[in-house]
Amino acid sequence: MKQRLAVLVLALLALLALGLAAGCGGDDEESGEAQEAQQTATSATEEEQELSQEPIRVFVGIDTAYAPFFVAEREGLFEEEGINVELTQFTQGGEGVDALTAGEMDAGGSGDATVLGKSTRSDIRALAVLQESGDYIKLVVREDIDEPSQIEKVGIVPGSLSEYGAVRMLEHFDISEDSVEFVPAGPPELPPLLQRGDVDAFVIWEPWPTQAEELGGKVLMRTKEFDYSYLFFLIARGDWFDEHEAEAAAYVRALARAAEMVEEDPDLAAEATEAEVRIPPDQSLTAVEQIDFDVRPFSDEDIENLDRVADFLVDREIVETKPDPEALVVEGFAEEALASN
Question: Three-class SS of residue 59?
């Protein structure tokens, strides 16, 4: 950095000398030296603005919610923004967040309950909202269940949108948590558990509801029917972000462009998702219809909803200390990053 500043200072002094020479009738040789100095200054400035090509380790899940990541990689949007992104797949976003907090990943994206729950034990920064939906996460039940009141055993992915959605469902229909048994499991395990009768229901994102239907279960309703819409946002590890704000801004811009492409061309999203995680295109097309993809800053309403999620995490003893949404969100970052898009 000191060397670059020195080059800039010398270049500016040379430009100043050019102005003085021009005012005194300097000759062509002096003019040529000044032009060379100007080129040196321009080159130094471009070097100063160049983004690091150190790989940015980004985690993704294996569902269509991550379609913008797959599109950004396939269409070269990360490269166009001047950054080197390496995608790593995890079965669910929560596993990716765990890898991020362990220092194995630099950035990624996941849902509100998952990120908030893990933010109490690690420095995580929420950069921007990527998507939201009240349709993508669904209440799935056994074929013989027609009302939420019939549910006795609920499968959950602990500390995630799945658990939060299940609790919101019970609250909405005035069903006591004491009257049901919560069965913890990973997303791929839930459809088989339902098929065997080990659980009566679960709340989960696609593609697991569709897989459960293929095994004889059914979708009873979507989360919007019990007043719940999730937020999914872009995150980064705190220490990485502190050293790479410019790269983080480029990362947000690339995914903003990708989100627009997903909305404008669902077929492109379906093709990219199938290529990366083998989800059939028809499932991805349905998912894209159910999700609002739009990279944007956090609103006051978002913070209020996140505060409610934080209360849930404490009440369920998922965390000991209530997460602070305002401390998690990097205020003003998304606005500044997207303004230069």
Answer: strand
Contact 116, 298 (CB under 8 A): no
132 CB-contact burial (10 Å; exposed 0-12 / middle 13-18 / buried 19+): buried
DSSP per residue, 189-207: GHHHHHHHTS-SEEEEETT
Q: Which of 37, 45, 41, 6 is nearest to 19 (CA)?
A: 37
Cα Rg for the chain, rounded, in angstroms? 25
Helix/strand/coil for 335: helix
Contact by Cβ (8 Å): 38, 252: no
Lowest-confidence segment of 26-30, 69-73, 158-162, 262-266 by average pLDDT: 26-30
- Residue 33: per-residue pLDDT: 54
- pTM, entire model: 0.80
CA-to-CA dists, residue 130 to 108, 202, 232, 296, 301, angstroms = 11, 25, 6, 7, 16
Q: Name the β-bridge partners of 124.
A: 237
- Type of residue numbered 292: D
Q: How far apart are CA 245 and CA 49, in angstroms?
A: 12
CA 199 to centroid of chain Cα atoms:
30
pLDDT tens digits, one per residue of 35-46: 554 554 444 333
What is the distance between the alpha carbons of residues 327 and 113, in angstroms, rounded to a whole number? 15
Q: What's the rounded Cα separation, in Å, for the pair 288 and 300?
A: 26
- What value does the mean pLDDT take over residues 246-268? 98
| Amino acid code (one letter) for 272 | A
Q: How far apart are CA 258 and CA 128, in angstroms?
A: 14
Residue linked to tokens 């999730």 = 230
Q: How confident is the model at residue 32 (pLDDT cuts 50, 70, 90)?
A: low
Cβ(111)–Cβ(160) under 8 Å? Answer: yes
